[in-house]
Amino acid sequence: MSRTPARGTKTKSPRSLDDELESALEWLKDHSSKSARDRMARYAIPSDNALGVSVENIRVLGKRIGRNHELAAELWKTGIYEARMLASFVEDPALVTPAQMDRWCHDFDNWAICDTVCFHLFDRTPHAWEKVAQWSTRRHEFEKRAAFALLWALTVHDKQSDDEHFMDGLRYIERAADDDRNFVRKAVNMALRATGKRNRALNKAAVAVATRLADSTDATARWIGRDALRELTSPMASRRLAKR
């Protein structure tokens, strides 16, 4: 039997989406500092649209809020750096659409938001591999970086996909290895190294790609290949693979 509230008792009404957004933004402002904002420049993160909140604090708020698809969309729309970081922690991967991934990817304007979204949200969606392929040929620097940041994230978090997906990833890596833009070449390099550390078969394939790149006439490809070879053929990598 349902019970009506006793006379004089106040029932707590659910907060509106606007209230939730305002509350989250106020919390971020309360935990911001000029020193944190100033430090962003050291890591090549633009601070024009930033409050100056540490990632640790953003994670705390994300855990407190929990999954909230509608709030994530509103947080992203603000354009505030920390609000977008928070959006990646509270968004529900199961509700993310390919169109939303494209919209957010198009908005990436620094490596930190790109990598955070790829490592904490996009790699958990059912559309991740599709976007690795699509974004690997994008022209914009951070959109293209997203393809390889996402591939890198999948090497760590995707426990279900077979090696063929990662073999495709190696083809995208080799194709993009002549892109000399800083944030692209670094992501390509990390994706190559991460793929080669996944298992023995992928290590062999990644070493073959790295060897070809190391012998390339292109300076960027040579740097990517040689740097990857140092790690993928190291004794430490061999020991790690032997345990898998």
**CATH fold type of the largest domain:** Serine Threonine Protein Phosphatase 5, Tetratricopeptide repeat
Named at the architecture level, the CATH assignment of the largest domain is Alpha Horseshoe
Low-confidence stretches: 1-12
Total domain count = 2
Helicity range: 55-70%
Q: What value does the Rg take, in angstroms?
A: 21 Å
On the 0 to 100 scale, the average pLDDT is 94
Distance between the termini: 57 Å
Share in β-strands: under 5%
How does this model look, in words?
This protein has 244 residues and is an all-alpha fold. The chain has two domains: 75 residues, no CATH class; 134 residues, Serine Threonine Protein Phosphatase 5, Tetratricopeptide repeat (Alpha Horseshoe). 66% of the residues lie in helices and 0% in strands.
